[in-house]
Write a structure and sequence with these properties.
alpha+beta, 31 helices, five-stranded mixed β-sheet, single chain, binds zinc ion, globular, 19% strand, 1033 residues
């Protein structure tokens, strides 16, 4: 999946226990009857009330035994709480014997009193320690930490019976092998009826099958044991179906045990509503040019929504084959993972499409679409590649077809593993939450990610479209052919696809080379990863929100970054051999990170211990800050975690952790005017040192920023800055961008004085390379935004003037065309956007003129695509311009143009326009729901709108969480976008208070912790730097 560029809080245990029996009737009924609950001092696990626990069970045993145990466990649980409560009272009573007020009375001596108080304090401390021990399981042996909070605890099903499984993960006693799925989506009434036969293999004798099912109404269920050839299949009698919606599970319980080693056919009939969100099997619509509304139904299953479309074993490691049949109106078409086998007319103008049986794959990769899309196709090396789109957009589909074929060809050759399907569909879906989704053989995209329009798509749009196609095609191997075992290793899918998309583009589209984009994503990714709320690449996840939250920059960008670092360290050849081995060894299977390290180790040198090297990078959050001190010919190195927030008492990162850092470096000798070739030094201890020639003028680490760490040069910054001032071209543009990013980031956490930033900046007058210029613009923009939103307008203006002076040469040099190479065009787009947003007079005048011409003479004045958004931005600053742009927004069929217009409309200085836009996004009619996060972020960047955007989020939080699932990337974008520029304690308090009030509807989200930390970091920035900004600028 490609997302767009964007721990459950524990109640104190006493609160849990005091409230759980009062508010949970299903628990209360069993637990309060003292006759039912004789005390047995066995294992008892204290659970938060949110898990709706009831009783302890015994795993895979006969149902009768289980039922007995449910009862005895209920007794245990109820009595244990009561017992603890009464113990507590007894203890209190015991203390009271000393005196009713809890103090010693005469004739106690003072000494006795002290001893007495000491004992009381000691007992109370021990009691509290036991009481507050997290996840503590009490047994005869004492208190042992529990490995799994929900293990062995059974809840109640919807019908009040015991639901025989309490864990989020499914048992591995039953393996699905094949699904036959018949679906009939009714696009008018927006519901779907389905029938499926699942062939399962029983691995261990059991009396239950647990499957996923969410929002489905199960009409009937039956079992048949499949006998060997010649024998008749035997129906299994009296099948009971239980539902436990909280874990999105159903249990199928036959009257007799299911035998080990036997295959069964499980038949299920069900109905559901098509989802009204853009997740699951959902309904959507679009307008034709004649305003006719056409309905469609499409899927987005990753990570957990296949269960919303059909009952299934919805975990990535449960791979199976799928045969899909869909009934559709005869005026529509269907698409699914596999080529169509047949189309048969059935009653009422319906046609039954039957698809070929799929390869063995995970449920999240299943997809089907019912729509009246058009397509363009080309047969390429035995694969039919097609691009599908809504009618009228054929001219926008040709580029994707070309790019798709070339990239497919690249991957087949690079991995030396053929693409295993006869067809590849790339489908542009009008309503789509993710950027794109890699469903095997039928990849779905948002329209902006697939369609390319010569007259409205900029060079960056083209680069973006190519990158997304490259990402999704890489998934056909990394993710589809070889899949992570569980979502904790999502980075194996997403980090690899991200990394491979850049490799593929370098080879296949060198004119669209994306190295600068990857570098800037690394900078941004490290910003998130430097927060205390970040997480390791491999992270334990269980709940739906935790799984959704894995689709973040850590899995995508950090994953890709450490692969880049590893490739640089091992060499490209070794790396390539390793990943080919990984794909071949595990094809059609599932893996963990260790499997990857194992494959890479087969080809690495004996001195390169890959598992050891990658241990900290993959299992710890954050990254190291390497501090450099030069002492003549000696370079002293020291590593520590890079930490943004200095709130050390709440830090959950062990500051003693050590990374094995393959430090790359170059040196420069000013006497000979010569840069030495790149070297590597492996820093695996807290400190290290290396020797350089004494004539070396400077040393630069992390060459081209290929490593995932930051460097603080201490006093050696002066030598580097001097070189930048003297002749910056000695450094590669990526190294210059790295130095700029590092010095701004280090200043923001107080590691270097802001004076150094000011000292470095004058070199920028001579900088003409895209990467360092854009990096500097970003940082100036960020500082300007913080000051402006705090109302320090004078200081903001001084920052703005300072930056505009630095870049004045380069601004005035630009022409307003689409001429030049990619880097020139990107630079033009970024610098003119910056200049116009910061009121550069010439820039604003030019843009205004172009906008007026475009409005009044639309047929003569087409806009250059690279500056189109800037022209729209300036045009929409007036009321009249805004209205005219809006009328164009409604009419255009180009998604790329719509995106640019929406950003410009959201930058209006008129609050009524902004409020109207946000509401339109929430309504989802005139502005699509999928675009609401973009609108909210853009309004938040607007001085006039930023407080209103936050208010809008607060007021509509419930609706937002219904439209975008908790933990989703969209919700992440909304929360971080609307809070990231707050820098006051009042706003910090407001954000914290609001989300705390949302309890399970948001307070536990990682993005909330990120938001709080970011605000604290902004407050810290103000505290450390404000006086220097006043002084220096
Ligand atoms: Zn992806």
């Amino acid at each position: 999946m490609e997302s767009f560029p964007s721990d459950r809080a524990q109640l104190p245990r006493n609160m849990i226990e005091n409230s759980m029996f009062e508010e949970e009737p299903d628990v209360l009924d069993l637990a309060k009857d003292p006759q039912m609950h004789p005390l047995e001092p066995e294992e008892v696990e204290y659970e938060p009330r949110s898990s709706r626990l009831l009783v302890r069970g015994l795993g895979e045993q006969d149902l009768e035994e289980e039922e007995e145990d449910y009862e005895s466990s209920a007794r245990l649980l109820g009595m244990s709480f009561m017992n603890r409560s009464s113990n507590s009272q007894n203890r209190s009573a015991g203390y009271r014997q000393q005196g009713s007020d809890g103090t010693c009375h005469l004739p106690c001596s003072a000494r006795t009193c002290i001893v007495c108080m000491f004992i009381v304090v000691l007992i109370a401390s021990v009691a509290m320690l036991i009481y507050f021990l997290p996840k503590c399981t009490f047994t005869k042996e004492g208190c042992n930490p529990s490995n799994n909070q929900t293990k062995d605890i059974y809840p109640l099903a919807t019908n009040g019976k015991i639901f025989p499984w309490a864990m989020m993960r499914l048992p591995d006693t039953v393996l699905p092998e094949h699904y036959e799925l018949l679906l009939h989506p009714d696009l008018i009434n927006r519901n779907v009826s389905g029938f499926e036969t699942v062939t399962v293999l029983i691995k261990e004798e059991t009396k239950k099958i647990i499957m996923h099912s969410s929002g489905l109404h199960i009409i009937s269920a039956s079992f048949k044991a499949l006998k060997a050839k010649g024998g008749a299949d035997e129906p299994v009698p009296n099948l009971e179906v239980l539902e436990y919606p909280k874990n999105q599970q159903i249990a199928l319980i036959p009257a007799q045990s299911l035998e080990k080693g036997i295959h069964y056919h499980l038949e299920l009939k069900f109905t559901a509503n098509l989802s009204s969100t853009i997740y699951g099997f959902y309904n959507s619509s679009y307008k034709l040019e004649n305003e006719t509304v056409r309905e469609l139904a499409a899927t987005q299953f990753e990570p957990l929504a296949a269960r919303m479309a059909f009952p299934c074993f919805d975990e990535p490691a449960f791979k199976a084959t799928f045969q899909i049949k869909i009934k559709r109106p005869n005026t529509y078409t269907t698409l699914s993972n596999m080529p169509k086998n047949s189309s048969t007319p059935v009653d009422n103008d319906l046609v039954l499409d039957e698809f070929q049986t799929s390869l063995k794959m995970s449920t999240y990769l299943v997809a089907f679409i019912v729509a009246d899309f058009k397509n363009v196709s080309r047969s390429f090396n035995g694969t039919l590649v097609s691009v599908h789109f809504t009618p009228g957009k054929e001219d926008q589909a040709h580029y994707a077809l070309e790019a798709g074929c070339r990239l497919l060809d690249f991957y087949v050759k690079y991995f030396n593993i053929s693409y295993p399907l006869e067809k590849l569909d790339l489908v542009a879906v009008p309503d789509f939450q993710a950027g794109a989704m890699e469903n095997w053989g039928v990849i779905t995209f948002g329209e902006t990610a697939l369609l390319y329009n010569e007259s409205t798509s900029s060079i960056m749009d083209k680069q973006f479209t190519t990158k997304v196609i490259a990402h999704e095609l890489a998934h056909q191997w990394f993710g589809n052919l070889v899949t992570m075992k569980w979502w904790n290793d999502l980075w194996l899918n997403e980090g690899f696809a991200t990394f491979m998309s850049y490799v593929a583009m370098d080879y296949t589209f060198p004119d669209l080379s994306n190295d600068d984009d990857f570098l800037r994503r690394r900078f941004k990714g490290m910003e998130q990863d430097s927060l205390n709320s970040s997480h390791p690449l491999t992270t334990r996840v269980e709940t739906p929100e935790q799984i959704e939250e894995m689709f973040d920059s850590v899995s995508y960008v950090k994953g890709a970054s450490i692969l880049l670092m590893l490739k640089t360290f091992l060499s490209e050849d070794v790396f390539k051999l390793g990943i080919k081995d990984y794909l071949n060894t595990h094809k059609f299977g599932s893996t963990t990170s260790e499997d990857l390290w194992k494959s890479l180790s087969k080809f690495s040198k004996s001195t390169q211990n890959v598992p050891q090297l990658m241990e900290t990078w993959s299992t710890k959050k954050g990254f190291p800050l390497v501090t450099v001190r030069r002492n003549g010919a000696q370079i002293e190195l020291h590593q520590e975690p890079f930490i943004v927030n200095m709130d050390l008492k709440n830090l959950t990162l062990d500051t003693r952790i050590l990374w094995q850092i393959p430090l790359t470096y170059i040196t420069f000798n000013s006497t000979t005017n010569n840069t030495a070739s790149q070297n590597t030094y492996l820093l695996s201890e807290k400190s290290g040192s290396l020797s350089i020639a004494s004539e070396v003028s400077w040393i630069k680490f992390n060459v081209k920023m290929s490593g995932y760490y930051m460097v603080d040069y201490g006093d050696h910054w002066h030598a580097l800055i001097e070189q930048l001032q003297h002749n910056h071209s000695v450094f590669h543009p990526s190294d210059r961008a790295d130095l700029i990013n590092s010095i701004f980031r280090l200043a923001s956490i107080g590691k270097v004085p802001l004076t150094l930033v000011v000292n470095l900046s004058p070199y920028l007058i001579h900088e003409t390379s895209t990467l360092p210029v854009i990096e500097a613009l970003d940082h100036f923009d960020h500082i300007y935004g913080l000051l402006e939103k705090r109302g320090f307008m004078d200081l903001a203006s001084r920052v703005q003037d300072f930056a505009l002076k630095l870049f004045d040469n380069i601004i005035t040099k630009q022409n307003w065309t689409d001429d030049g190479f990619l880097v020139d065009r990107k630079l033009r787009s970024a610098i003119l956007s910056f200049a116009c947003r910061h009121q550069h007079l010439v820039c604003v005048r030019n843009a205004k003129q172009m906008f007026d011409d475009w409005i009044h003479f639309p047929y003569n004045a087409s806009l250059p695509t690279d500056v189109m958004e800037t022209v729209f931005y300036v045009g929409a600053q007036t009321d009249d311009g805004w209205m005219k742009l809006w009328s164009k927004y409604i009419l255009t069929s180009s998604a790329a143009e719509k995106r640019k217009m929406l950003n410009a409309l959201s930058a209006s200085p008129d609050i009524k326009h902004l409020l109207w836009l946000m509401q339109a996004g929430l309504d989802g009619d005139l502005v699509k729901m999928q675009d609401l996060p973009q609108v909210l972020v853009a309004v938040s960047e607007n001085l006039v709108g930023h407080l209103h955007a936050w208010n809008f989020v607060k007021e509509n939080w419930e609706s937002l969480t219904k439209k975008f699932q908790l933990g989703s990337f969209s919700l992440h974008t909304i929360v971080s976008g609307t809070t990231s520029q707050f820098s006051t304690k009042a706003h910090l308090f407001e954000v914290q208070t609001f989300f705390e009030s949302q309890k399970e509807n948001g307070s536990q989200l990682r993005v909330v912790k990120e938001a709080v930390e970011t605000i604290k970091a902004n407050i810290q920035w103000m505290d450390k730097n404000l006086q220097y900004v006043e002084y220096l600028l």
